[in-house]
Amino acid sequence: MSHAASNLYKEQGNKPPLSVSGLSAAYQKKPVLRNVSFEVKEGELIGVIGPNGAGKSTMIKAALGLIPTIGGEVLVYGKPCKEQRKLIGYVPQRESVDWDFPTNALDVVLMGTYGRLGWFGRPKAKDKALALECLEKVGMGDFADRQISQLSGGQQQRVFLARALAQNAKLYFMDEPFAGVDAATEKAIITLLQELKKQGKTVIVVHHDLATVQQYFDSVLLLNVELQAFGPTKDTFTREQLQRTYGGRLAFLDSSLTGEGAGIAVPKGESGHE
Amino acid sequence: MNNITAMLSDPNMRWILLGCMLLGLSSGVIGSFSYLRKQSLVGDTLAHAALPGICIAFMLTGVKSIGVFLVGAGIAGMIATFGIGYLTRHSKLKQDAALGIILTTFFGLGIVLLTFIQHGDYGNQSGLDKFLFGQAAAMVGSDVVTMSLISILLVTICTLLFKQFKLISFDPGFARGIGYPVALLEQLLMLLMVIAVVAGIQAVGVVLISAMLIAPAVSARYWTNSLSAMIALSGLFGALSGALGTWISSSVSSMPTGPVTVLAATFFFIVSVLFGPKRGIVAKRFMSARVKKRFLLENELRAERMKGEAAG
């Protein structure tokens, strides 16, 4: 490696995995994301929390450049997101695709390698081996040949996670991976998140279940159109901050959030009446 | 069987046969992607939108050739696509209503222009009205050469960009995430669809050509769970429909080739719906009948055993 290249690498190494400043997005006239700025530390598991319609998914998609924004800058390891695609892994919401598509589980995971294959390249034996390995990591090795419509919701979610693993990225975005999955899948996802963390990867997860936040995430990002709070879970996931984020639509079953036991909070009337 | 050899010995018929098979093949291949992207009706709209494009191209140039029509239909198709996108984004209309409005507007305009051409002083106008329902018999060698080139182009692009097209059909969000130019690829697929439609219009006509985009693809889906196999099968069904359509219409006098080809594609569809493995109606019935039979048998055995125990 030349001196200049190694310098460049070092320079990149010091940059945060994700740095967002002034990110804003709107559907039609309504702003759904206003002026969001934050910076993520390497090797953290970050939960993105907020009520329905708070712009959690929008924020992820805007940060990835999947939807048009009306302002703001997103840097991934110091460079625009567009130039760093190979460092980014993405798990979309399971409902965003039609699972009756004619393909099997292994083939979906192989899609994770497409980004490295170039414009006309085909997946090779080593890509297939990697895909199978990723399926095994999420406990789906036996389902490689299974038509994807014949998988349960949780299994489909795990296939999506395996695909993200096959991307071999450094920064992961996951859009509600825990939504509507069975206990086995939930456990598989947690194990996976921990492993990614151990490898020094950074994972940003849109999350719905407040009861498990303290258990799963190092940091939380509270969002309700605007950024409400961002920081280490134990300082940030507090009653006041949550009240502020959810606008009083929250009933706490557990009296203490700061104590030893996990605080259990149940959002009141998810659909909301506003 | 005699008339097959008769058909093949007639050079004119050979061209028509080849042309119809090629159009079936290309529309079958492209149709697979539009079906999986839930855009089957977009193909229908593009086909109808092609009519005014073809008319205007003819009025401007006075030439009747696939190449000229391709340009006209392509531009009309792009305007129609833009119109559909604009209506769904900027009005409260859902896609079905937007498609309906665009389809009928363009087709209405096409018919008006067609009438205008027929009553105007365009000397070479004869045959343009044949584009409504198609006239395979009017195909000549040069048309078939153009169609061959088009088919080769379509199949080559779909082979080269197979993984891109597959990914934007299954999960466009993820495709965008890994940096694929999804909007561009979608436009390309749309363009390929316009090309397939225009190539088929001469033989099958604007009204029915969408059947060749939809029926082979839907039929193929019944036989396989692999995308590449589905596309190959869909192309095969399309080509066989073309062959069958040409053969039947040539052996029975005054049978229109295009509509018969569409009916042949429908025949393959019905066979697939009925007899496709696992997904087909018969396979499903058979499976549930077997489950029921086994259940009843087990019940009976149990009842007999209990009777035996009670007696003993």
Automatic annotation (TrEMBL), chain A:
<keyword id="KW-0813">Transport</keyword>
<protein>
    <submittedName>
        <fullName>Metal ABC transporter ATP-binding protein</fullName>
    </submittedName>
</protein>
<dbReference type="InterPro" id="IPR050153">
    <property type="entry name" value="Metal_Ion_Import_ABC"/>
</dbReference>
<dbReference type="GO" id="GO:0016887">
    <property type="term" value="F:ATP hydrolysis activity"/>
</dbReference>
<dbReference type="InterPro" id="IPR003593">
    <property type="entry name" value="AAA+_ATPase"/>
</dbReference>
<feature type="domain" description="ABC transporter">
    <location>
        <begin position="18"/>
        <end position="250"/>
    </location>
</feature>
<dbReference type="InterPro" id="IPR027417">
    <property type="entry name" value="P-loop_NTPase"/>
</dbReference>
<keyword id="KW-0067">ATP-binding</keyword>
<dbReference type="InterPro" id="IPR003439">
    <property type="entry name" value="ABC_transporter-like_ATP-bd"/>
</dbReference>
<keyword id="KW-0547">Nucleotide-binding</keyword>
<dbReference type="GO" id="GO:0005524">
    <property type="term" value="F:ATP binding"/>
</dbReference>
<dbReference type="InterPro" id="IPR017871">
    <property type="entry name" value="ABC_transporter-like_CS"/>
</dbReference>
<dbReference type="Pfam" id="PF00005">
    <property type="entry name" value="ABC_tran"/>
</dbReference>
<comment type="similarity">
    <text>Belongs to the ABC transporter superfamily.</text>
</comment>
UniProtKB/TrEMBL annotation, chain B:
<keyword id="KW-0813">Transport</keyword>
<keyword id="KW-1003">Cell membrane</keyword>
<feature type="transmembrane region" description="Helical">
    <location>
        <begin position="15"/>
        <end position="36"/>
    </location>
</feature>
<dbReference type="Pfam" id="PF00950">
    <property type="entry name" value="ABC-3"/>
</dbReference>
<comment type="similarity">
    <text>Belongs to the ABC-3 integral membrane protein family.</text>
</comment>
<feature type="transmembrane region" description="Helical">
    <location>
        <begin position="201"/>
        <end position="220"/>
    </location>
</feature>
<protein>
    <recommendedName>
        <fullName>Manganese transport system membrane protein MntC</fullName>
    </recommendedName>
</protein>
<feature type="transmembrane region" description="Helical">
    <location>
        <begin position="41"/>
        <end position="60"/>
    </location>
</feature>
<keyword id="KW-0812">Transmembrane</keyword>
<dbReference type="GO" id="GO:0055085">
    <property type="term" value="P:transmembrane transport"/>
</dbReference>
<feature type="transmembrane region" description="Helical">
    <location>
        <begin position="99"/>
        <end position="117"/>
    </location>
</feature>
<dbReference type="GO" id="GO:0043190">
    <property type="term" value="C:ATP-binding cassette (ABC) transporter complex"/>
</dbReference>
<dbReference type="InterPro" id="IPR037294">
    <property type="entry name" value="ABC_BtuC-like"/>
</dbReference>
<dbReference type="InterPro" id="IPR001626">
    <property type="entry name" value="ABC_TroCD"/>
</dbReference>
<feature type="transmembrane region" description="Helical">
    <location>
        <begin position="260"/>
        <end position="277"/>
    </location>
</feature>
<feature type="transmembrane region" description="Helical">
    <location>
        <begin position="137"/>
        <end position="162"/>
    </location>
</feature>
<comment type="function">
    <text>This protein is probably a component of a manganese permease, a binding protein-dependent, ATP-driven transport system.</text>
</comment>
<dbReference type="GO" id="GO:0010043">
    <property type="term" value="P:response to zinc ion"/>
</dbReference>
<feature type="transmembrane region" description="Helical">
    <location>
        <begin position="66"/>
        <end position="87"/>
    </location>
</feature>
<feature type="transmembrane region" description="Helical">
    <location>
        <begin position="174"/>
        <end position="195"/>
    </location>
</feature>
<feature type="transmembrane region" description="Helical">
    <location>
        <begin position="227"/>
        <end position="248"/>
    </location>
</feature>
<keyword id="KW-0472">Membrane</keyword>
